[in-house]
Amino acid sequence: MDTQQPKLELVMRIEAEIAPALVVGEIGGGVREIIPITGGRFTGPDIHGEVLPGGADWCLTRPDGISDIWARYTLRTHDGVLISLINAGTVQADENGDFRGRTVPRFEVADGAYAWLRDAVFVGTLLTDGAGTLAKATFFRVA
What we know:
The chain has no helices and 10 strands. It has strands spanning about 10-20, 20-25, 30-45, 50, 55-60, 65-75, 80-95, 100-110, 120-130, 135-140. β6 (about 65-75) and β7 (about 80-95) form a beta hairpin.
């Protein structure tokens, strides 16, 4: 059995621009909102590029105030490779009205220079400003 403590390696930081939430309403178990992703950028030690418009976060805010998030983004690297990102986790409002939480991102990408994204385990942090205009995520590979 391997008893070595896992380490975290920075993979990327994302700044995703978001539009105002589309409020579906109470669906039984919480309030559903769809938050459109309208663009942005990402940077990391071995990868960078843009967040393409068209993704969204399907957020469910539970009665206890915690929001379950499930977001799907499309990233385009500086060299033209498309990466599908699925980011799930939970967030909660802080004292400033910003939303902070933890996520478990998964990447879908074709064979090639970024195929390593398919084969690793990642964790992330998320901060969405209270104004609802920017979501910042930082992803780490568990090594």
